[in-house]
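Sample pair:
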Amino acid sequence: MRESDKATVRNILTSYLELNNHRKTPERYAILDAVYSIDGHFTLEELGDKLNEELRFPVSRATLYNTLKLFMELRLVIRHRFQGTTRYETCYDNNSHCHQVCTICGKVTEFKSIAVTRAINGVHAKRFRKDGFSLYVYGVCSTCQAKLTRQQRKNEQKK
């Protein structure tokens, strides 16, 4: 992420905290910096590990959870629920994108589709302002498909 974007998200957080008379704690800023240094999706545990091991700034699970909840309200982070697991990702300047989710291994990859973006932008939402979208496409990734094909061939050879 560009340094100007990091400064912008820090300013968004600072403005919110000041306007609402909340404390500007070092934990909130450390978590924000850690979140915006992660490329892609992450779990609460992965974020905690990054803070503890890489940044030497341990925080409690409750602090992580409550801070991510605040970041979601500020539209700095988005939460995804992929096949029984909760993952987060930054969403400042990236509110609209699509995900491919493998139903076998759970691998999640992002992809862009101009056609999907145009279709959603073209939808007139009555009494509703669209901020962005996330689309989930479920299927089988090429790695799992190759494993399934090999397994099927083995089973056919045994017959």
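Residues 70 and 76 are 9 Å apart (CA to CA).
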